[in-house]
Write a structure and sequence with these properties.
Strand order of the largest sheet: 3-4-2-1-5-6-8-7
Number of domains: 1
Helix content: 25-40%
Number of strands: 8
Radius of gyration: 16 Å
Largest sheet: 8 strands, mixed
Strand content: 25-35%
Number of helices: 6
Low-confidence stretches: 1-7
CATH topology: Rossmann fold
Order of helices and strands: HEHEHHEEEHEHEE
CATH class: Alpha Beta
Length: 210
């Protein structure tokens, strides 16, 4: 986002950050912690952005045979041309990654779309402050722009609706390790842990609703 001088993904590597913060520390952790048989999962993502988190989650769903219902907000969507210029298909994360990324971005807003046999998507073009969750989420990917440019996105009041929509044993992960963010999540009743961050970042936060 040029007007904010902010990047959609870490300059240390979009793929590595997305995999570590969201897929491994969020979805992978949740799956490992659920020892009872669970073949479905609901995920809420704040900040669809480039679609990389969704693309990697789609891959996880396919390789682990878990049905994922993925819901995401993006009030300022990229154009398809901007997405194509990112060249994420060169990461070779999926055999048909270019086609899947296109499907993710071309999916209509406000409708549930079956992107693959194990992954459905609902996108909302709306600000978080206007969003009212209608379901419980097993996992929250909190990938809003950083505190420097959008401090309001990290406040207790802003986080409250989605935290309250977390299922028991639900997991929230974010790249942020800021003390004020940790305190806001704790004030909302979550157990918050500082864990190892992705390459180039010492720590990140994982919070659990016990």
């Amino acid at each position: 986002m040029e007007e904010w001088d902010e990047y959609y993904h870490s300059m240390h590597g979009a793929f590595n950050e997305a995999m570590h913060v969201y897929v491994e520390s969020g979805l992978g952790f949740w799956k490992a912690e659920n020892t009872t048989i669970r073949d479905s999962c609901t995920i809420f993502e704040m900040g669809f952005g480039t679609g990389l988190n969704a693309l990697l989650t789609l891959e996880f769903a396919a390789s682990n045979q878990i049905n994922i219902q993925y819901e995401t907000l993006e009030p300022f969507p990229l154009t398809l041309r901007e997405v194509q210029e990112l060249n994420f298909d060169s990461l070779q994360t999926l055999q048909d990654s270019k086609a899947f990324l296109r499907k993710l971005h071309l999916a209509p807003w406000e409708s549930s779309v079956q992107i693959s046999s194990t992954f459905s998507l609902v996108k909302h073009k709306i600000l978080l402050e206007n969003f009212k969750p209608q379901k419980q989420y097993d996992i929250i990917y909190y990938d809003a722009f950083g505190f420097r440019v959008q401090p309001e996105m990290w406040s207790e009041d802003t986080l409250r609706p989605i935290v309250e929509a977390m299922a028991p044993q639900g997991v929230l992960v974010t790249y942020s390790a800021k003390g004020s963010v940790r305190r806001a999540l704790e004030a909302l009743g979550l157990d918050v842990f500082r864990i190892e961050g992705p390459p180039g970042k010492r720590e990140m936060l994982r919070a659990i609703r016990f």
